[in-house]
Amino acid sequence: MSSDTLHMAEAGDKPEAPPPTAVSFFDPSLSAVRRGVFIQWGRTVLILCTFILAILSLFWAVQSRVNQNMPALKIWVVDFDAQLEPYRNTTPIVGPAVVEVVNQTLSSGTPNLGYTIRTPADFNNDPWAVRQSVYDEHAYGAIIINANATALLRDAVTTGNSSYDPLGAAEFIIISARDDTSYYNYIIPFLSEFDLAVRSYFGPLWVQTVASEGLNFTAVPQAINPAIGFTTIDLRPFGPPVITPAVSIGLIYLIILAFFNTPFMMPIHVQLIKGNHPPLKIPQWLLWRILSNIATYFFLSLFYSFVSLAFQIPFDNPSAPDTQPADNPNAYGHASFFVFWMLNWVGMSALGFPCENMAMILGFPWSALFLIFWVITNVATGFYALDLAPGFFAWGYAWPLHRIVEALRTILFDKHSRIGLDFGILFAWIAFSIALFPLAAAFMRWKMKHGWA
């Protein structure tokens, strides 16, 4: 007997059993375990596959009816041609031609913008009121045929006015900072097609008119071809390109950063209720977690905002008149960065507290599925025009990221403001989540007592 064995015998200890010998996957001794593993594996795969179909479908679905819903992108068509003094005595040619092309476009049966013919009286006979209507987001854009469109064109061919500019006949009014994706993918291309359609329709008619009246073809060639055109006036152009992450993809990281607050901070919080010391009272522990989360979001959102500042996104430009085109006007002047930071702080809190609650309710790893759900539903409703989405997505107007994106565009581009509503909905999310917080914590403790966590 060895000295170690003799010593263990004298001490009354039993010798340690040798570790079990590893066996092959199909060894009979693993049959029960193997069956359980197969069942759990199959159940987990089924849950994940069902999750993919149910949740990822939302992302595809938000773009599933774009062509059918294209008329939701309203474009006012307002013909002022010869409708205002001193041009009322002119027989209009340009305005009726543009309106006729609109009617042909609407009757073509192909997907197109929501062209809507409005009268000058609808805007108090004021072209600037049309611009204001676009700025106020009553429409995505407007086509204005200027009051002097026909008068200037006729004057050019009758008097030989070589300074005639065809682009002075009409205007496209847009505001691309409202939703750059919709404008660049749909609205601007369709307006370009409309411009070509108007020129194709008006050109032959105008040449026939000039020929029949014996007017001069050569004195002012631009008055013959193209004769008329459209000046595009973008009240709030989207740019510079570096601003794109701040109002789109970069916001995904706002959600992810808020989500990872829980796994990073929970081990720290637990020290207050576990260990060789009297545990902190649960209500105070919950209050500490809520306040510390808010403080964490405060600093995380600040440094998140610093990234935009570091890459010189404009934050100190003055505001601009609603109806005048302006590059990068900021809604709050020099205070815009502070408002930007506050929005990111409140937005991160609105996005983060639901993640905190679901982490306690679902536990890990299932809370990761909530992160995917949270990202997909917020991205689908925040980055794409809900006017083009199926009606099912109307709930998206109340989703946090939609309000954050809208408020960010107000701050960065001085577009039409609903920032009070935006902040109000975000605060409502925070209040609801904090109200749910004690219930989620109680459920987590209940799961731990029953060995479910």
Automatic annotation (TrEMBL):
Keyword Coiled coil applies: no
Residues annotated as transmembrane: 44-62, 242-265, 286-311, 331-351, 423-444
Superkingdom in the source lineage: Eukaryota
DUF3533 domain location: 45-434
Stretches for region Disordered: 1-20
Cellular component GO terms, alphabetical: membrane
Alphabetized InterPro entries for the sequence: DUF3533 (IPR022703), MNNG_permease-like (IPR053001)
Protein name: MNNG and nitrosoguanidine resistance protein
Lineage: Eukaryota, Fungi, Dikarya, Ascomycota, Pezizomycotina
